[in-house]
Write a structure and sequence with these properties.
By secondary structure, the chain is α/β, with parallel strands linked by helices. It has 13 helices and 11 strands.
């Protein structure tokens, strides 16, 4: 590994035409230098992974509806050690509203197991046991990942700010069965990092944590997880996009840029939106169709919702006591899939609010 040079993150340069870009919704853009990430994972996991991704692509094209969602996102506790201003965690009133007035401070393992068990019964391939939180604040989080792995989930992913990623935690994650690990950073320089990642550890310490993880992965000859770093593109960090990409592209498998979604739709967040000429996210609103109701559910504490939007609690598909399968086939789930399939997101007020505040 190279020496940490966090104060001059623009030193590593590579030609932009060497990179591959990939997106499924024009809100999140992944860039990679080497082989396709899906191909890389499939080469490790085999044909079953490619079969699952074929289903995912078909669902993403609005062509099929599977018997059970392909992806479970478990947003089941809302605690973070950072207070980033572009995140719900830093907006307590909004956070309470988004979770119907009840915030969970830990993820109940027994409840988690019931959800994972149902997914396993339906051969659900993909899970993210994390939402609006920092997952590594759960001291035995690797146990949650391992349980899903042992139950047959093959695509297990998390995002972390890496502040709690000690060498011990790194080794635990490497041995847990995790498939994808993304480090949320949002900045290339210490000055910007301090502004957009409020309450954070110094950037050089976080980079050292990530580099230690990468060293352990290489030393142990682990094929997985694939690794990445991400930046939520804001007005306050948009000038560092290229610097961020240049620094990380040779160190991790992918560099991700994510569109800013406001923590709520009542306040004015105009100072957060990046300039359009610095954004990847340019699809016109009338043409937008959201694929999320076709491939996932997001479980927000006890509520089952169709997507990761801040306001998805306003679209309740069901309750975990009744199971994911029932929620997936609920009248509202079917209606949401239909309006997005035919390109009429504006027929649902919540979808309209979300899409027109993001694109």
């Amino acid at each position: 590994m190279t020496d940490n040079k966090s104060d001059v993150l623009g030193e590593d340069k590579i030609s932009p035409n060497r990179l591959k870009s990939y997106t499924t919704d024009n809100r999140v853009v992944h860039k990679a230098k080497d082989e396709d990430i899906i191909q890389k994972i499939g080469n490790v996991l085999g044909q079953k992974f490619f079969d699952y991704r074929k289903e995912w692509d078909a669902a993403n094209r609005f062509e099929i509806v599977t018997e059970f969602p392909l992806f479970l996102q478990l947003d089941m506790f809302q605690v973070c050690n950072y207070s980033c201003p572009h995140c719900n965690i830093a907006n307590p009133k909004t956070l309470l509203k988004a979770y119907n007035g009840k915030i969970e401070t830990k993820m109940d393992f027994e409840k988690y197991k019931r959800i994972v068990d149902e997914g396993s019964d339906y051969n659900c391939p993909s899970i993210e046991p994390q939402g609006v939180n920092e997952p590594l604040l759960i001291k035995d989080f690797h146990k949650y990942v391992r349980y899903a792995y042992d139950k047959g989930f093959m695509d297990i992913m998390i995002n972390t700010n890496a502040s709690a990623l000690t060498p011990k935690r790194s080794q635990q994650l490497l041995d847990s069965g995790i498939t994808r690990l993304r480090f949320s950073l949002d900045a290339a320089t210490p000055e910007t990092y301090k502004k957009v990642r409020v309450g954070s550890r110094p950037l050089d310490q976080v980079i050292k944590n990530i580099e230690t993880f990468l060293e352990l992965k290489e030393k142990g000859n682990y094929k997985l997880p694939v690794t990445g770093v991400s930046m939520c593109v804001l007005k306050g960090n948009q000038h560092e996009k290229q610097m961020f990409e240049d620094f990380w592209i040779d160190k991790v498998d992918m560099v991700t840029f994510q569109a800013f979604q406001p923590p709520n739709f009542e306040e004015d967040f105009k100072d957060f939106y990046p300039d359009m000429d610095s954004s990847h996210f340019k699809e016109s609103k009338p043409e937008y169709r959201c694929p999320q109701p076709f491939h996932r559910v997001v479980i927000r504490n006890d509520l089952i919702t169709p997507c990761c939007a801040t306001c998805s609690n306003e679209l309740p598909l069901g309750h975990i006591k009744d199971g994911v399968h029932k929620a997936w086939h609920s009248p509202l789930a079917k209606k949401l899939r239909e309006i997005h399939r035919i390109g009429k997101y504006y027929d649902n007020a919540v979808c309209k609010k979300c899409i027109e505040s993001t694109l």
